[in-house]
């Protein structure tokens, strides 16, 4: 809805990754350098870690647009808790092999046959494993064994592992010493700085066709950084809610108070979802009063939103189906 109100061509703060909106921050630029170097080596494991929402998947999508498809065959594996056999089956399936119901020996045979055919065609495979922290030690060992497979002295398979920071703790386990020795590049994707957070917000807006409406004051942009810590997905969450808030309130400029109001509303929404009284426990009077005050404040905001939407509807009807300028 707010795209028309602000004359934008797209939603600038969608949560789903979109390569069009990739922002090449200093941390993302360093991560891309590690990825590019690693893939140019044509062997081993490349590891990229980062907190939830740091932009790992967006980085991967951007990398995919830069790869030489004439010589690289790629497949992606989004992991859950898998045993070693299921991992092999999902890898085979990701590369388009029909292996339903096959035992482990046949799975390995089919994967090696596929990799041999790629090598004969002067191609090699790159497997992207997302949420790699969910894989167990045995599954990681299967990946290592596949990466050890060589044809004419060349490894036809390379693995790029993306995961949350706890994966680094997992890698430190003695059982994964051989996998660590096969790592040729590793990088941790940290948050954006305050200046880069501001540049990130403006970049996404401009990519969506922004021409200065709505305006963001310096204090509003600082408030966005403080509320999000520079984590891209959090920035998208806050800014998306802020744009919707501006549309419903008829705002064409945002100040720090607007950001604070949106963040407070988001925190209240989150608290209402996760807060639940213990079974059989009586609520204290002061706690009940606090929750009632918060509820009243939210109702007041929702009433303002409803009034604004009613006004928009009236303008639509009076204009014979078209919004007035």
Question: Describe it for me?
Answer:
By secondary structure, the protein is an alpha/beta fold. The protein folds into two domains: 26-189, Rossmann fold; 192-274 and 284-318, no CATH class. 54% of the residues lie in helices and 12% in strands. It has 13 helices and seven strands. The strands form two sheets. The chain has a five-stranded parallel β-sheet, sandwiched between helices. Strands 6-7 form a two-stranded parallel ribbon. Strand 3, helix 6 and strand 4 (157-163) form a beta-alpha-beta unit. The longest helix is centred in the C-terminal third of the chain and has 34 residues, at 285-318. The two termini are 15 Å apart.
Question: Helices, strands, pairings?
Answer:
Blueprint: H1 2-5, H2 26-41, E1 45-50, H3 56-64, E2 72-78, H4 84-94, H5 104-120, E3 124-130, H6 137-148, E4 157-163, H7 166-171, H8 177-181, E5 183-189, H9 194-207, E6 215-216, H10 218-228, H11 232-249, E7 253-254, H12 256-274, H13 285-318
Parallel strand pairs: 1-4, 1-5, 2-3, 3-4, 6-7
Helix pairs in contact: 4-5, 4-6, 9-10, 10-11, 10-12, 11-12
The number of domains is 2
Number of helices: 13
Query: What fold name goes in the CATH topology slot of the largest domain?
Result: Rossmann fold
Number of strands: 7
Shape: elongated
Poorly predicted regions: 280-285
Proportion of β residues? Answer: 5-15%
Question: Main β-sheet, in a few words?
Answer: 5 strands, parallel
What is the ordering of alpha helices and beta strands? HHEHEHHEHEHHEHEHHEHH
Helix content: 40-55%
Mean pLDDT value: 85
The appropriate CATH architecture of the largest domain is 3-Layer(aba) Sandwich
Strand order of the largest sheet: 2-3-4-1-5
What is the highest CATH level, the class of the largest domain?
Answer: Alpha Beta
End-to-end distance: 15 Å
């Amino acid at each position: 809805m707010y795209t028309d109100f602000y004359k934008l061509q797209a939603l600038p703060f969608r949560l789903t990754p979109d390569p069009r909106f990739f922002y090449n921050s200093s941390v993302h630029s360093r991560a891309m350098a590690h990825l590019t170097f690693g893939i140019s080596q044509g062997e081993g494991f490349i590891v990229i870690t980062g907190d939830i929402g740091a932009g790992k998947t967006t980085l991967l999508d951007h990398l995919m647009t830069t790869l030489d498809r004439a010589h690289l065959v790629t497949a992606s594996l989004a992991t859950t808790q898998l045993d070693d056999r299921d991992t092999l089956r999902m890898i085979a399936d990701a590369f388009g092999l029909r292996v339903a119901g096959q035992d482990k020996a046949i799975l390995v045979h089919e994967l090696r046959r596929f990799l041999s055919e790629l090598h004969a065609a002067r191609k090699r495979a790159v497997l992207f494993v997302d949420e790699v922290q969910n894989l167990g030690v045995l599954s990681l060992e299967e990946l290592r064994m596949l990466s050890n497979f060589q044809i004419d002295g060349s490894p036809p398979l390379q693995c790029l592992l993306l995961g949350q920071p706890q994966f680094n703790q997992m890698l430190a386990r003695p059982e994964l010493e051989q996998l660590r020795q096969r790592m040729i590049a590793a990088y941790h994707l940290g948050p954006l700085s305050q200046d880069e957070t501001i540049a990130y917000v403006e970049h996404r807006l401009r990519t969506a066709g922004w021409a200065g409406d709505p305006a963001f004051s310096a204090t509003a942009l600082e408030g966005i950084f403080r509320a999000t810590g520079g984590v891209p997905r959090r920035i998208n969450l806050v800014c998306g809610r802020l744009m919707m808030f501006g549309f419903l309130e008829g705002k064409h400029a945002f100040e720090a108070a607007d950001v604070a109001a949106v963040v407070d509303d988001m925190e209240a929404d989150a608290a209402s979802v996760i807060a639940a009284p213990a079974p059989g426990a009586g609520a204290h009077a002061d706690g009940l009063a606090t929750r009632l005050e918060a509820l009243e404040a939210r109702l007041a905001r929702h009433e303002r939103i409803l009034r604004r939407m009613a006004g928009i509807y009236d303008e639509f009807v009076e204009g014979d189906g078209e919004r007035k300028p």
